[in-house]
Amino acid sequence: MASRQLEQQITVDGQQVLVVRSARRTRTVTADQVAGTLRLRVPLRLSQREVENHARAFQKKITRRASKKPRSDADLLDRARALSTRYLDGVPQPEAVTWSAQQHQRWGSTTSTTGTIRLSWRLREMPTWVQDSVLVHELAHLIEPGHGPRFKALVEKYPRTAEADAFLAGVSWADHHSS
């Protein structure tokens, strides 16, 4: 018995949407993008108004995701300098801050002789407050190379340090215990 599927192109708020109605689909609505066009897979019985509402919701979600693009290296340098000013009295002035695909075990590293900070590419998809915490940690290394009491006092000036440390510990734990 062949499954019944109907495809139609509609326009919602000026954007093309490909709607795939399926008799086999009873409740769920899913969406993806195909060549820049939103494709909705919906139950056959869904009304046109419901389809349009789902299309708007998915368009909004896609727009929100696109606005959360990862920071560029230039953005990272600007952010590091702003964090230095706000939390570390502007003392550490990094020369460069870059994403690194070479760092798999560490979240960040600093070369104090050149003023260069590298952040693991794995941080790119993490919340900005986690990235900021790692940046402050690495900035603190431009002042204090070790992890002693003076270093800890510098790092703790960032208010979400403990929260970010817990977040990263959870990610690390999950990485080591995934099958």
Automatic annotation (TrEMBL):
YgjP-like metallopeptidase domain location: 102-162
CDD domains named in the record: M48_yhfN_like
Keyword Translocase: no
Keywords associated with the record: Hydrolase
Coiled coil (residue ranges): none
Source organism of the structure: Nesterenkonia lutea
GO molecular function: hydrolase activity
Protein name: Metal-dependent hydrolase
InterPro entries named among the record's database cross-references: UTP_pyrophosphatase-like (IPR053136), YgjP-like_metallopeptidase (IPR002725)
Top-level division of the source organism's lineage: Bacteria
Chain segments annotated as transmembrane: none
